[in-house]
């Protein structure tokens, strides 16, 4: 940051003029919880002094902003977020979240790391460096998430983690998702953690439903935080073990009523911060970022100043950021002017003393440069529609197939059920079964792996839907009735360099281009959200309304204790083992 | 510490037996503020697990201790202490404070650094390493305290600070006492702070009565804490600026009523910790260490669990010690069993899972080894009594002398007053004035500097008193009626290698030997306190009861805005300049 302490001291002493004074504000002091009238003096991007009523500046600042009696609070700190989930590259993510008052984020580039490895992490860092948002990175600890059951584009061991930890702006090891491995003495996880601890890094945790001895083992291993709590009891137990709690409300999960109840059980909140984890472009555009979680926490009865403290100072302390999270002498001048302490959009946002947003509009100076993204969808080895067929050796007219069957109304929880399906010309044929569709998962990282399976009640009425966003390895997932539609869709994904796509009657009717690693758009939040909306409409012309829009994206998620499909085969996630597509034939 | 995380994880999971279980306790959870029944499992010196009611151990521990329903709390952390003030060397300090529940201290070896420089700091570290107490060291920032007005045994600039910061167990830069220099842009202080920040060190503050723009400048410069507050307003203002507040009750200062009032003004206490600063051996023996400050805070109305949190977790977080300050998985097993949450002596104390004290008795395994201290009292260049005379050139029978005159009942606040005094054989003679005594300050660090002055109403009735403990340069200070008595005392100080001494009727009648740098005893706390008590009685046979026992020790304290005497001359501390002993003659 290039802090010139001499000038800062001189400015605080009134010996030299400041760059900026913000007057006529209700200053929210996150250290003490007090709110009082004050004036904030800034020089070289840092706060020099917060003058209380009656203290006059010795020399007028170059710029004086009238706060019009609004509240001045620090910029928000997101303690755990995957930028890729917004489908925006870091610089566009920056422009999207800053108008909502977020000024610093701690990101886990886990998704791009699974596609591009260390180069992906470097891309995120490099692109983030063009933005005004302070973007800190944590080294993804679980690449791939579950080795052996799928093939991603990279594999991180202790060496890669060490290499990443040595990069600028890298501040820790990202969520230790393999908590089972940690508790059971996984050598790989153990070495990754040791590497992190050796380098003095913060170890971020991820322990859904973890309690009792497993939680103790996980904490003792070094995991310092958790953002997965869904109940008041979980919050309480994790706080008792000394974990930092990152209160989360994402596009995928929001249990704030329970979380708020947990927080209210405990008088001390200094180990509680705020995170978003995964927020889609559309949600960013319509309802915000950290401010949305703040709003939600306040609506659930938590005290506004306390929640603001969590979203600022507590988050910064969790990471040991000594210059962030407060508006106080020596702190970075990252701050926002808000009409009310309720998580609504700020009137104005500053980062390092520069105005970066006014009334919801980003006004920072950084401009996007065209980026030449390498195409990461390496699936040209699929020659044509015939490669997407589910083929059977031999002359049989019928085959027993392990069909994936949802066990509730949605299609996330599912089991395998053996069904006899007709075979024509050596291919399983679904023409007679409207409730079935093919699922094909194709490796896009350079291996010639693919799996074709059958899914019951996915909700596909015709055509095909597919994506290159598919946790955690981000291989291509296509769901289709006819192989030709599936192939048409694959070719479009290749052409776009990745994305989301819908094919109806042989035509592409909806798509979102995600050329950055097949995960992120090149466009702004508005553009990405707009494209996504068009895609959504096309999706629901070929799928029933009950089908979750992101069904394809979690088709391969081996961390789920369900039946999933990876490029390597059909997987029972609960048992962490393969099951055959054709039972009894392999 | 050599933490074996694999074994820790296995112990938490119940796969291997623990070394120690403490059962039947009321567990005080400093993270949540809750108190509940629990059992604590320890392995390899770390806590593996805290089992709540109903959770059984899978395997019994090697040792099981019955807590008899007492409270289990973490060991106390002292966030600012000068070990030398106890007159004990670090290993004996350790044995003295552990039975009171202190398990970690952050020390400023400022006193010994002024005598022995970096070698002094190394001695403190080396000797501390023999002890069970976790002793962290901060690099003394103001050696000498006020350059130019006195000659100490060392001078620390950025290079020395850097060298110390690179040593093991050194965790920061110690109290930036030259706050005036910091605010006024002192190049020396600036460079010392930059060196600390460059090495990621914690910068400890010291800002008595600092407020307004000076406080902002001091905070912006990087000073993170303060332990000098004496009023509720100071506490509040410093907390508002984001400073860590170290609540202090020392042998010299106790303003806990005011401090507690300040704490009660603010709802958040996570930036508040506890320190002792200076505690004498006698006080350590009779009333304790951090527990005494805890007791005092509770007596002044603060909530017990909250104060215990300050004395443990908050202090550890202030320094970024991630394994200290709590009894929780992965934390060092530093803990104490107490009958009540009131700061009274613990029933039992553990450090790294080993019992180190039981009912006030130290039971650790470390034993003192004889130490060969180098004699630091280099005053043999004072040939005899004649060198302690206040001599006047020329034949005058009378001389105008700047006499030091206390302005209140004590002798700390004082001014200079010109008085005509008789001269006999070229020496100022005090025979006719019972209210006067000579003060001589003699450099003991290798320079042939000395100053003889006259003090009114010191309270010396006869003989001489003197010391090698004399802040901040620790030169020899002797107060005497007759030069012969002064010289007798000096020779005894030389013989002892430093200490405190009383001479009456030509005989040494009281003394405390402080062979470690002329500051610390070689004996235990009991021995040092016993010697000191004998000295005290001898002191009050030659001095009036109003004379503070430590008058000599602050005779040279140039930081006081009073008239003081250093080896270089008579000094007006308020103006930070010399004044002549004989006005008009120099």
TL;DR of this structure?
The structure is a homodimer of 586-residue chains. Chain A is of the alpha/beta class and 586 residues long.
Name the poorly predicted regions of chain A.
none
Portion of residues in beta strands of chain A equals 25-35%
Oligomer: homodimer
Overall morphology of chain A:
elongated
> With helices defined by DSSP (H or I, 4 residues minimum), what is the helix count of chain A?
15
Major β-sheet of chain A, in short? 9 strands, mixed
- Compute the number of strand runs of chain A: 29
Structural class of chain A: alpha/beta
Rg of chain A, Cα atoms, Å: 25 Å
Mean of all residue-level pLDDT scores of chain A: 95
Largest interface: A-B, 57 and 56 residues
Measured between the Cα atoms of the first and last residue of chain A, the distance is 60 Å
**What's the helical proportion of residues of chain A?**
25-40%
Which terms summarize this structure?
Metal_Hydrolase (chains A, B), alpha/beta, 586 residues, hydrolase (chains A, B), 26% helix, homodimer, Metal-dep_hydrolase_composite (chains A, B), 6-stranded antiparallel beta sheet, 26% strand, adenine deaminase activity (chains A, B)
Structural summary, described in words:
2 copies of one chain form a homodimer. Chain A is elongated. Chain A has 15 helices and 29 strands. The first copy, chain A, is an alpha/beta fold and 586 residues long. The first copy, chain A, starts with a helix and ends in a 7-residue tail after the last strand. In chain A, 26% of the residues lie in helices and 26% in strands. In chain A, α11 (281-287) packs across α15 (525-542). The mean pLDDT of chain A is 95. Chains A, B: Pfam families: Adenine_deam_C (PF13382), Amidohydro_1 (PF01979). Chains A, B: Belongs to the metallo-dependent hydrolases superfamily. Adenine deaminase family. Chains A, B: One of its GO terms (molecular function) is adenine deaminase activity.
């Amino acid at each position: 940051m290039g802090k010139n302490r001499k000038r800062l001291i001189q400015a605080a002493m009134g010996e030299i003029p400041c760059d900026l004074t913000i007057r006529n504000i209700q200053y929210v002091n996150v250290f003490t919880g007090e709110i009082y009238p004050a004036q904030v003096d800034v020089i070289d991007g840092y706060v020099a002094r917060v003058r209380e009523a009656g203290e006059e500046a010795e020399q007028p600042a170059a710029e004086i902003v009238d706060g019009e009696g609004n509240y001045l609070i620090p910029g928000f700190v997101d303690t755990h977020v995957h930028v890729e989930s917004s489908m925006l590259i870091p610089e566009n993510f920056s422009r999207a979240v800053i108008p909502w008052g977020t000024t610093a984020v701690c990101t886990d580039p886990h998704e791009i790391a699974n596609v591009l490895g260390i180069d992906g992490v470097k891309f995120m860092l490099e692109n983030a460096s063009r933005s005004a948002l302070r973007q800190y990175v944590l080294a993804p600890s679980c690449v791939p998430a579950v080795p052996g059951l799928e093939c991603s584009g990279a594999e991180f061991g202790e060496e890669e983690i060490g290499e990443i930890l040595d990069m600028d702006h890298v501040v820790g090891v990202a969520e230790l998702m393999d908590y089972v491995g940690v508790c059971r003495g996984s050598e790989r996880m153990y070495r990754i953690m040791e590497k992190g601890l050796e380098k003095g890094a913060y170890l971020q945790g991820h322990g859904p439903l973890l309690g009792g001895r497993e939680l103790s083992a996980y904490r003792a291993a070094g995991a310092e935080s958790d953002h997965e709590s869904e109940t008041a009891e979980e919050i309480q137990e994790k706080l008792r073990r000394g974990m930092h709690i990152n209160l989360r409300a994402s596009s995928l999960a929001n249990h704030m009523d329970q979380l708020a109840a947990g927080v209210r059980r405990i008088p001390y909140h200094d180990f509680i911060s705020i995170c978003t984890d995964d927020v889609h472009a559309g949600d960013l555009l319509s309802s915000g970022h950290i401010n949305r979680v703040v709003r939600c926490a306040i609506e659930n009865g938590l005290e506004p100043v306390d929640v603001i403290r969590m979203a600022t100072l507590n988050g910064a302390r969790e990471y040991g950021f000594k210059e962030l999270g407060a508006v106080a002498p020596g702190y970075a001048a990252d701050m926002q002017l808000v009409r009310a302490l309720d998580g609504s959009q700020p009137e104005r946002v500053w980062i390092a003393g520069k105005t970066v947003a006014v009334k919801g509009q980003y006004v920072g100076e950084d401009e996007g440069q065209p980026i030449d993204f390498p195409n990461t969808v390496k699936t040209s080895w699929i020659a044509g529609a015939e490669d997407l067929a589910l083929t059977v050796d031999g002359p049989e007219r019928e085959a027993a197939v392990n069909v994936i069957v949802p066990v509730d109304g949605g299609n996330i929880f599912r089991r395998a059920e053996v069904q006899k399906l007709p075979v024509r010309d050596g291919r399983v044929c679904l023409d007679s079964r409207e409730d079935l569709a093919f699922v094909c998962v194709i490796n896009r990282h350079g291996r010639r792996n693919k799996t074709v399976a059958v899914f019951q009640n996915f909700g596909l009425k015709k055509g095909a839907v597919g994506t290159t966003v598919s946790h955690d390895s981000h291989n291509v997932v296509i769901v289709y009735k006819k192989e030709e539609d599936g192939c048409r869709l694959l070719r479009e994904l290749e052409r776009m360099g990745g994305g989301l796509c819908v094919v109806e009657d042989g035509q592409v009717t909806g798509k979102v281009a995600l050329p950055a690693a097949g995960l992120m758009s090149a466009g702004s939040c508005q553009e990405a959200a707009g494209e996504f909306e068009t895609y959504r409409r096309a999706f629901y012309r070929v799928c029933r309304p009950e089908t979750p829009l992101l069904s394809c994206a979690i088709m391969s998620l081996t961390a789920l204790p369900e039946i999933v499909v990876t490029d390597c085969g059909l997987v029972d996630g609960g048992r962490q083992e393969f099951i055959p597509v054709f039972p009894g034939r392999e």
